């Protein structure tokens, strides 16, 4: 790889993106002293009690089965604030539009933004619009930033954790919080978003009845925190489940063991992955969460999540362990294999 230029892989999650962030971004922008600073590399940051998040969406195509770039931008930004234990309150939207973009498509996207924001209980209250020359970008890019505040159930949730851990040393739900014995809950089927996009992408398209899972996860988070015992949450976007679990393992210093037969994957997604040579564990998702819960509360949290519309297929897929310091999957035939962190997302431009 040419070391002197930025490549697609540097923005695709996984090992190369982590190196890029540490070698370039953190080199110049760390050291804020924030409660949850940039260098923690969690889904959001916290400064003076305010949760901040910014994300930019450059999905291709911009309309795809079950969703579009507008819904994706709202859901993705809201979910990243939820994952740290915040209640999202407001969004700021930046639009970069290529000259010649149809107004009908723009209205369709803005209507989707409005409906999804209403679903998530937030408003877009400020932003910016730029128009660039035709050919300067691929149709439209959306930046969505958000603010939020401490979730109304977060202190209760941490209090429940303290009952079983003999005290806690964290105030937010961070990747580094996991400990041996914690159970890992996945809130539903993985791979739907990436496969839905691929099914209509020029040059790759194939016929499959799968829709993107892009959705705000407010209800799932509310129910989980209301029960209590949650120590960490993260949505498996770029790099998928494999990337997420490796980040948790790396930041905490503990290993994670997952069970292949417990991971929800649709037959259609599994078949598409076989056809395309993809690993479903590495595919991006936009409406799922992975939740680490103290062992004693895991089943109760799982039941609460399954009582929601988006969480009805949730499963406990594994646990944190001190047997090793990496991610291992017990296969359906009784073997074990290491689940490495992907180099990058195998499907670019999905978010």
Features:
single chain, alpha+beta, 60s Ribosomal Protein L30, Chain: A, Phosphoribosyl-aminoimidazole Synthetase, Chain A, domain 2, 7-stranded mixed sheet, 5-stranded mixed sheet, 9 helices, 31% helix
**CATH domain fold name of the largest domain:** Phosphoribosyl-aminoimidazole Synthetase, Chain A, domain 2
The level of helicity is 25-40%
Helix vs. strand class: alpha+beta
**Strand fraction band?**
15-25%
On the 0 to 100 scale, the average pLDDT is 93
* Major sheet: 7 strands, mixed
Q: Examine the secondary-structure arrangement and name the CATH architecture of the largest domain.
A: Alpha-Beta Complex
Distance between the termini: 24 Å
Provide a count of the helices: 9
* CATH C-level of the largest domain: Alpha Beta
Identify low-pLDDT runs.
Answer: none
Describe the overall structure.
This protein is α+β, with helices and mostly antiparallel strands. The chain is 31% helix and 23% strand. α2 packs parallel to α3. The two termini are 24 Å apart.
Short description, anyone?
Helices cover 31% and strands 23% of the residues. It is of the alpha+beta class and 351 residues long. Helix 6 (218-227) runs antiparallel to helix 9 (298-306).
Secondary structure: elements and pairs:
Elements: H1 14-29, E1 45-47, E2 50-57, E3 63-64, E4 67-68, H2 69-83, E5 86-98, H3 103-120, E6 123-132, E7 140-150, H4 154-165, E8 183-186, H5 192-198, H6 218-227, E9 230-234, H7 240-252, E10 255-259, H8 267-276, E11 290-293, H9 298-306, E12 315-321, E13 327-330, E14 336-338
Parallel strand pairs: 5-6, 10-13
Antiparallel strand pairs: 1-2, 2-7, 3-4, 5-7, 8-11, 8-12, 9-11, 10-12, 13-14
């Amino acid at each position: 790889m040419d070391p002197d230029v930025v490549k697609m892989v540097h923005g695709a999650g996984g090992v190369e993106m982590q190196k890029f962030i540490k070698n370039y971004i953190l080199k110049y922008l760390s050291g804020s002293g924030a409660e949850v600073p940039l260098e923690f590399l969690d889904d959001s940051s916290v400064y003076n009690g305010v949760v901040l998040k910014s994300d930019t969406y450059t999905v291709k195509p911009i309309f795809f089965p079950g969703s579009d770039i507008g819904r994706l931008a709202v859901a993705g930004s809201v979910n990243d604030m939820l994952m740290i234990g915040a209640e999202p309150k407001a969004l700021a939207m930046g639009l970069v539009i290529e000259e010649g973009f149809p107004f009908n498509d723009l209205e369709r996207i803005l209507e989707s933004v409005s409906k999804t924001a209403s679903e998530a209980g937030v408003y877009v209250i400020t932003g910016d619009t730029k128009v660039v020359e035709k050919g300067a970008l691929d149709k439209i890019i959306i930046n969505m930033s958000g603010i939020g505040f401490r979730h109304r159930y977060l202190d209760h949730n941490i209090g429940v954790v303290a009952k079983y851990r003999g005290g806690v040393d964290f105030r937010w739900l961070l990747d580094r919080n996991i400990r041996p014995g914690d159970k890992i809950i996945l809130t539903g089927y993985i791979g739907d978003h990436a496969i839905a996009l691929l099914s209509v992408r020029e040059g790759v398209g194939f016929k499959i009845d799968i829709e993107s899972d892009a959705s705000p996860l407010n209800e799932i988070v509310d129910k989980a925190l209301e029960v209590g015992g949650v120590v960490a949450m993260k949505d498996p976007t770029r790099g998928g489940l494999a990337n997420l679990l490796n980040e948790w393992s790396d930041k905490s210093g503990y290993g994670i063991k997952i069970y292949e037969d417990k991971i929800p994957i649709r037959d259609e997604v599994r078949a598409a992955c076989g056809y395309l040579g993809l690993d479903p564990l590495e595919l991006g998702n936009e409406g799922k969460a992975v939740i680490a819960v103290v062992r004693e509360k895991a089943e109760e949290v799982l039941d609460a999540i399954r009582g929601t519309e988006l969480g009805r297929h949730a499963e406990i897929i594994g646990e944190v362990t001190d047997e090793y310091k990496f991610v291992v999957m017990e296969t359906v035939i009784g073997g074990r294999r290491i689940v490495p962190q992907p180099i990058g997302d195998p499907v670019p431009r999905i978010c």
